[in-house]
What we know:
It is built from six helices and ten strands, in the order ααβαβαββαββββαββ. It has helices spanning 2-10, 24-37, 52-57, 71-78, 121-131, 183-190, and strands at 42-46, 63-68, 87-91, 106-110, 137-143, 155-156, 162-167, 173-177, 194-201, 205-212. It has a seven-stranded mixed sheet with strand order 3-2-1-4-5-10-9, with helices on both faces. A hairpin with a 3-residue loop joins β9 (194-201) and β10 (205-212). S-adenosylmethionine is lined by residues 3-4, 7, 47-49, 52-53, 68-70, 73, 93-95, 110-112, 115.
Amino acid sequence: MEMERYYSKRAAEYEKIYDKPERQRELEWLRRRVPELLAGRTVLEVACGTGYWTQFIARKAKKVHACDINESVLEIAADKPIAKDRVNFFKADAVTLEGVPSGCDAAFAGFWWSHVKKSALEQFVSNLANRLEPGARVVVLDNQFAEGSSTPISRRDAEGNSYQMRHLANGDQYEVLKNFPSSAELAEAVRPVAREAHLETLTYYWLLVFTLK
Length: 213
Ligand SMILES: C[S@@+](CC[C@H](N)C(=O)[O-])C[C@H]1O[C@@H](n2cnc3c(N)ncnc32)[C@H](O)[C@@H]1O
């Protein structure tokens, strides 16, 4: 699919997204906040990409099982300076979660939720909840739409999903699904599996933290 292909081609330039000057203060806060929320836990990280967040989470978590669908990003992730006994990178689909280990008492998804079609979110949330231990903590980080900083939305489909045109350094162009859910949509999506949830909203990012029943 278009999104998978885009991230496979973009692997080498992916982390430039974390260089935007106006976002540095919030990113610095998130690099502390996210690992604190997952400290001491066995974490399943879905769509880990190049392991940008994995490297910070692994410093505090007991272990991170981090997966992505693309080999090219996993190769970059494997070169991150992370203690080998703290991380396990492997290939898996974030929606089906086939082959992911059991026994995780936490999960993290960074900039993945926004790429899931509204109609597939229920499946993603319920599959994830089924793979984790009861009472597990789930941390989801993603983007707020910020005028002037975010890539403009190029179109919306009938189901309400929004899309952006993304350009790679070599000039190739991809249309990528990128949703910016409201707090009500997020609350609605996790209600079937969560015993409590709260949303931390920044200018450029949102952080949803929920506890499974
Ligand atoms: C926006 S990137 C986020 C990467 C990383 N979590 C981060 O925050 O830096 C989205 C990632 O989703 C991965 N991806 C796309 N489709 C996927 C799927 N079906 N299952 C797992 N990962 C997928 C891409 O390869 C890409 O690494």
